[in-house]
Amino acid sequence: MEHIHRVLFVCHGNICRSPLAEFLFKDMVKKEGCADRFVIASAGTSREELGNPVHPGTRKKLAQDHISAAGKYAVQLKQSDYEKYDVILGMDRPNISNILHIVGSDPQGKVHRLLDFTEQPRDIADPWYTGDFDQAYNDIKAGCTALLKHLRRF
Length: 154
Fold this sequence. Notes:
Elements: E1 5-11, H1 17-31, E2 38-44, H2 56-64, H3 81-84, E3 87-90, H4 93-103, E4 111-113, H5 127-130, H6 133-151
Parallel strand pairs: 1-2, 1-3, 3-4
């Protein structure tokens, strides 16, 4: 039986970067024909946006690729998510710090920045503050592409 990869994308509020990563990655694995080997979700580290829909800037970027985020509402990362997922991907160093605060520790090495899987490891700037959804999209797409390449080895 093939391994099911359980992937959780995490940002601050779960309305901009992490849903962008969630729905881009879902689209990628569907197009690759391996969606049945993945469980993919997203969450935020804060309570600020709980229950709110995906940010219009994120929805617009996804719509350009004919991807819908309909029905997604912000949820908060829980300590129990550590056991539920194989890999937990933060968008920047503050996200990683907050993830570790919530889950307690990372004894299994599951927590990473998304762009740590690329040739240029770095933070993904938050478009909530920068307004630059194009840059966030490009960074997240690069991260998701590298992540999928990494996970296909297992």
